[in-house]
Amino acid sequence: MNAADLRSIQTPLKEHYREAPVGFQSIHLQFTLDTDASDEQLATLMRLTERYCVVYQTLAQPPALAVTRKLAGA
Questions:
Q1: Which residues are CB-neighbours of 57 under 8 A, at least 6 positions away?
Q2: Residue 63 carries which DSSP code?
Q3: Residue 44: helix, strand or coil by DSSP?
Q4: Which long-range CB contacts under 8 A does 8-14 form with residues at least 24 apart?
Q5: What is the CA radius of gyration of the chain?
Q6: Mean of pLDDT values over 53-61
Q7: Mind listing the pLDDT tens digit for each residue in 18-47?
Q8: N or C: where does the chain have the smaller number of CB atoms within 10 Å of the terminal CB?
Q9: The dihedral of CA 67, 69, 70, 72: what is its sign?
Q10: Is 37 helix (H, G, I), strand (E, B) or coil?
Q11: Cα–Cα distances in Å, from 50 out to 11, 15, 19, 47, 63?
Q12: Which among 14, 15, 20, 16 is positioned nearest to 1, based on CA atoms?
């Protein structure tokens, strides 16, 4: 969504808004762990979590996006 989308949505509402940023501004992950693990073990856990978490990797290295359409029966 961009500023043009926002304007087209607000028109029927008869309210006027200044341009607003749309989308994620930042994402924070926090892990609260109840453990006796050492700092080194926790650092390893975090490193491996970043490496193997599919959601984290997708956000860290976003794929190309495309929007397409297809007609039914085609």
A1: 50, 51
A2: P
A3: helix
A4: none
A5: 21
A6: 91
A7: 666 678 888 888 889 999 999 999 999 999
A8: C
A9: positive
A10: coil
A11: 43, 43, 35, 5, 17
A12: 20
Residue with tokens 């700092």: 39
Residues 6+ apart with CB under 8 A from 6: 17, 19, 20, 22
Question: Do 4 and 25 form a contact (C-beta atoms < 8 A)?
Answer: no
Half-sphere exposure of 47 (CA within 13 A, CB side): 6
Contact predicate 45/37, CB 8 Å: yes
Which tokens go with 45?
A: 């856990």
| Predicted pLDDT at 33 | 94
C-alpha neighbours within 13 Å on the C-beta side of residue 37: 12
